[in-house]
Amino acid sequence: MITVDHMNFELVENYRDAFDETQFESKYSEVLNKYDYIVGDIGYEKLRLTGFYRDNKKKVERDKKYSAIQDYLYEYCNFGCAYFVLRKVPKTEMKEREEDGDEDAVETKEAETVNEVPETQTNARTLAARQHSNKQ
Fold first, then answer.
1. Looking at the predicted structure, is the pLDDT value of residue 120 above 60?
2. Which parts of this chain are annotated as the region Disordered (predicted)?
């Protein structure tokens, strides 16, 4: 779980180990708070962030929906560039995770109080990213 600007995100995809939490936090802007998904792509060693909405959201252009992320990557990003996709975790889902005793949510909640990420959570995230990149 990644927390920035009181918003919680989970890493959905991390192609070519693109996600760097420090770089993401420095580039993140509150303008992105309204989106359900954040795509970060790296071109010429610079991170660019773009927001997308969930597919079932009404009154949203098709090219700003989750299903259009692959089209965005093909059309607007360098071929084969490193990228990541983050999903915003709604506060209601965070509460459900805490009530269900989800260890990740509890660890995240505890980490927020001391402003640090637990080592076990970081290692799990790194392992998941490596496994995902090995599949591709």
1. no
2. 93-136
